[in-house]
Amino acid sequence: MATRMTENGVSTTQKGQEQFETFVVSTRPKRKAVKYDFRSAETGELFTIVRPTLEQCREKRNEWLKHKGLTN
Q: What is the distance between the alpha carbons of residues 65 and 68, in angstroms, rounded to a whole number?
């Protein structure tokens, strides 16, 4: 998948930043999905996920942050 969110295969997401883009999954029936990246401001750790909606991506990010003991 070609993405604007990477350069040479590496995420360009900066600390404390989120990036996302919508794409079409080439299955039948075709459906939309969201690729989502978030980099922790505290640790610089990258969270990345693909889900059907941006809201689902953010819910999973919040669960990840809670598990790590971080804030967004």
A: 5
Q: What is the pTM of this model?
A: 0.84
**Can you tell me the distance from the alpha carbon of 14 to that of 3, in angstroms, rounded to the nearest whole number?**
16
33-54 pLDDT, tens digit each: 999 999 999 999 999 999 999 9
In sequence order, what are the residues at sequence separation of 6 or more whose Cβ sits closer than 8 angstroms to the Cβ of residue 12? 5, 6, 19
Contact assessment for residue 29 and residue 63, using Cβ atoms and an 8 Å cutoff: no
End-to-end C-alpha distance for the chain, whole angstroms? 27
CB 50 within 8 A of CB 32: no
Domain ranges of the chain: 6-68
- Other beta carbons within 10 Å of 24: 9
pLDDT score for 12: 85
